[in-house]
Structure formats: structure tokens, C-alpha cells
Amino acid sequence: MNFLIVFLFLFFFFIFKFIYLYFLNLPLSYDEAYYWDWSRALDWGYYNKPPMIAWIIRISTEILGNSELAVRLPALICHILTLLFSYFLITKYFDKTKAFFLLITISFIPIMTVYSFIMTVDPPLILFWILSLYFFCEYLKSPNYRNAFFTGLFIGLGFLTKQTMFGFLILSLVYLIIFNKTFLFRKETFLLFLIALLIYFPNIYWNYTHQFILFKHTEEHFTRKTLSLYSFLKFLGGCTFVYTPLFLVFLFLGTAYTKNLFKKQFSEILDFLYFLSFPPILVLIFLSFFIRLNVNWILPFVLTGFIFSFVYISFSQKWKALIFSNLVIGIILSSLVYLLGYFPQKFPDSLQILLKKFIGWKVLAEKVEKYCKPGIPIVTKDRSIASSLAFYMKSHPKVYVIQLEKFPENQYHLWRKTDNLARKKVMVVKKWLDSPYYLENAKKLDEVIIKITEKRYKYFSIWEGIFKKLR
Hints:
The protein is α/β, with parallel strands linked by helices. Helices cover 61% and strands 8% of the residues.
């Protein structure tokens, strides 16, 4: 497939998405605002994530200003580069036609569509994952210092983005132990892993000075225990929806490939793609019986699995029909995602509720702005309120979040201690309309009721009073 066609597709795809993003009237989710707030105080680590997302948002906002577009544009750029290097990977080692169909297919995977205009840690993660995958495959073919350096570089940058990247390093190491032991003892391989760990070292040191808070937070994700067939079916069904039915096709192909894995009839690149996709996804699907998992956690593995699938299958008429059918499903689902962002009121309540993280923060910030006075700190119990007020209020205040437990539960607890506000006059912004127990002489300034759907509302209240000493 001529690269000019690919370039033109990606160029116009970018233009379409940029125009969509530019005119999108969807406020930042409180997570996006939270990461933006991090970007105002650059560091080597934060409460629940490494620092990369804050660095990227800071670069964007330095250039474009503090706007929704500036926060979200990096997600689109990461998305387009991910598509491009996914195409390059298959083109370099396999087949240009398959690479083009892969490019078109993953362009319309619903979760990829979401992450092309919503800025979380996942867009940069999958970019660094694909770059690491690309250069690790390069290293397997040509084990020189250049390929080792770039592989280590992008793995290290992935470490600074999200903890999931440790899966890449561990699975790569296990792959070499099982399939290519000679690579383990090469100087270039040592350099590869050394560079990755050296890049990550500042975040390790930051965690050391903060009681390894990031690792404790990550551990909490795996304490959401359950033992339920419903949990398994919900996870598998969610994956089928956000990744399209191609996810089930991948599971079928991975099972078939496993039977012939050690017969040495496939290339080492295909073995590597398999190893970084099918086994970890199978383990996580099994764990979904016992732990409540989020479908986005497996995104890098699934993307690798789709690359594996397109390389592995022969493009017979049957497979072409299946890929085309899946593409149609992907386009329909992605179109619904685009339309939901613009016209949520046209959708049923069950889908409108998906936007609850985004709705109402501008209205709340405008109300709070009316009562804000210089020198009076703003206090809340919810990081969602704190981050949204910080972004949408014109003064971009540094909001305090009350810490009730001994151990910090968000980044605001690391930055600012409400103990220092004892016996001082504060403004409190809280969920619900009842009086805050941590205020003396509490005076209600306003109530804010925000409609999310036809049947659901958010309730906030604004108070003024003297902050009590809580601990």
C-alpha cells in the first residue's frame, strides 16, 4: 500500500479530529482537570501516577494557554502517532496491505476514539508502548546499541507514564528467557534495561521520599475483590464493546497459536507480539472472576494483540469479510462516541450518564467565583471538586482537600494540609446540601443543582464559616 495514501488518511483524520476537538463543548472531566493541576507543580511523581502526563500537559498549556483544547490536544497527537507506528511495525516486517487494514481498523476502535480527545495517562502510554514494541522488534532483528538505546528510552518514558509499562519489561524479559537466552547475556541487552531503569530512577526516588505512595495506591486496585460470574461477564462484555468483536477474534487466534507456539514455525517477531498480548490478557480475564477490573487496563496488550492478529491471519475471503464487518461495527460505535460528545441529550439516560464526570463543573465554578474573597481559602472533601474549581475559576485557586484518614488519599493531601486552617475562616464547597460538620458558625451561601440527565442531578452547596480542628 502506497505510503502516500496512508499519510493522506492520517492527515485528514487528524484534521477531522482536530476540528471536532476545537468545537467540542464538553468540559474537562475532573480527572483531566486533576492532571492539569499537577502540571502547575512539576515534579518527579504524583499520588497515583508517574509524572509524564503532567509534563505533557504543561508543555501544551505553555504554548496554547490554559484551555480545554490545550489539555486535550496531546491526546490527539499521541493517537495519530500510535496509529502511524502501528502501521510501520507491520509494514517493516510483514505485509503493507495488512498494515493498512490494521491502521483503518484501530482508527475506529471505540476506546481509541475516546482517547483521541480525552486526556488521561492512556494516550501517552499506548504511544510509548508501541514505540517500545517497534524498537524491541528492531532489536530482535538487529541487536545493536542504537536499537537497544531507543528501546530502553521508550520503555523508560513508558515507566514515567503509567505502571502498566512494567508489564512490557517483565514480559520482554520472560520472552528472552524462554525463546532467546543468548540475548540475555549481550551487552546491548544490559544497556537496554539499564537505560529504562535509569530513566525511571527519579520517580523511584520520589516514591522513596513519599512512603512509596504510588505503589500503595496501585496495590489498592487489586484489593477490589469479588467472586462473581457477573464480574467476569461484565469485563468480557465491556472488552467486546470498547474493543469491538475483534477482541473475541483475537482470543480465538491466540488460542490457536498457543498450540503451535514451540514448534518454531513462526517468526520471532510474531512470537514476541503473541507473548506481549495473549498470555497477559488471558491472565487478566481469569482475574476478573476475583477482582473488579477496568477495561482500559488491558489497552496496550489488546493493541499488541490486534497487531499480532493481523500479522497471523491469512487474508482469505472469509477473513476479509470478518475484518470488514468488524470495521463497520467499529465505525458505527465510534460515530456514536463522537455524537455523544456533541449531542448527549439525544441519547438515553443510560448513555448520558457516561458523561457525568464532565458535566456541571463550569457552572459550579461560576457560582463559587461569585462568593470567592481574597485571602479566604477554598476547602472541599472531594478532589473532583478541587481540581475542577482550580481549572475553571478565573483565579485558578489552590484548593484544600480535607484529609480524614491518616494516610493521604490524593495529591492535594500531599500539597496542602487542612490542619493549618484550624480556627480560620474558610469557604467550603461540598456535594449535597446538608451543613458541613467541620464548620463552626456555618452560613450557607448558595445551592447549586446541576442536571446530568432527565432523571439525574448533581447537588452542591457553598458555605462559609470557621474551620474546626479535625485531628
